[in-house]
Specification:
Blueprint (H helix, E strand, L loop, with lengths): L1 H24 L15 H7 L4 H13 L16 H12 L7 H8 L10 H12 L7 H14 L3 H8 L10 H13 L3 H13 L6 H29 L1
Length: about 240
């Protein structure tokens, strides 16, 4: 035993110290945060060292995995969406053509359990797409859906849909989307105006689309007449 302690005594001492240290500190976990602080745009440009595309993808991957590192799994309602919005717009300054960030925003972060935070996602998608609706119409459509069916805010949904009225080379269903939003708000005349505009300013409309638009106009005219008749009866 004496020989054993002479040879391994120092090792046993350090093992004992390690066990004591573990017992004292095991309940003290580091605060790693969820969404990292947002750096300035000048700093990001400098840190890219001329390769903005590589740095964009590196930071985007960090934002995609934020809160789920080192064995953690964080519920979305715990995220700071104001920070996320700032990250989305910052990364667009490095690459505003990539669909990476709007994809993450609309398909992942929009699923937060705290529904009011979805407003940040909607606002970001609008900022990203509103000035180029023909090219980025898909993300405006996602913004309309989130505003209408998650936030239940038809006024916001209409704002998201309005740029699509001018997306003349976008698919027909995209150009018709503002009409559906107007209809959900009870604005039949505005809905009809949009469909009439599409019919009047489009060439070679597919037969199926033309039949749908004709049906839409006829049915909404009937609803409009019924609404006007009800209003007239109420006045009498």
């Amino acid at each position: 035993m004496r020989k054993f302690f002479c040879e391994y005594g120092l090792l046993l001492v350090f093992l004992g110290l390690q066990l004591c240290f573990w017992d004292i500190t095991r309940s003290k976990l580091p605060d790693m945060g969820i969404v990292p602080d947002v750096p300035g745009r000048v700093a990001v440009k400098a840190l890219s060292f001329g390769d903005e595309e590589f740095y964009f993808r590196l930071l985007a991957l960090d934002i995609q995995n934020a809160g789920d590192t080192f064995g953690r799994f964080t519920e979305l309602y715990k995220y700071d969406f104001k920070k996320l919005y700032a990250w989305f717009t910052l990364l667009d300054s490095l690459d505003n053509e990539s669909d990476y960030m709007p994809f993450i925003a609309s398909y992942y972060y929009s699923q937060t359990q705290y529904v009011p935070d979805v407003r940040y996602v909607v606002d970001y998608l609008y900022q990203y797409s509103a000035d180029r609706p023909e090219k980025k119409f898909w993300w405006l459509a996602q913004a309309v859906y989130l505003a209408q069916h998650k936030l239940h805010d038809n006024e916001l949904a209409l704002k998201m849909a309005q740029p699509l009225e001018h997306a003349d080379n976008a698919p027909y269903w995209v150009r018709q989307l503002p009409a559906f939003v107007h209809e959900s708000r009870g604005e039949m005349q505005d809905a009809l105006r949009i469909i009439d505009h599409i019919q009047a300013n489009s060439k070679n409309i597919p037969d199926g689309e033309l039949k749908f638009m004709t049906y839409f106009v006829k049915e909404r005219l009937k609803k409009l007449e019924k609404m006007q008749g009800q209003e007239g009866g109420n006045k009498l």
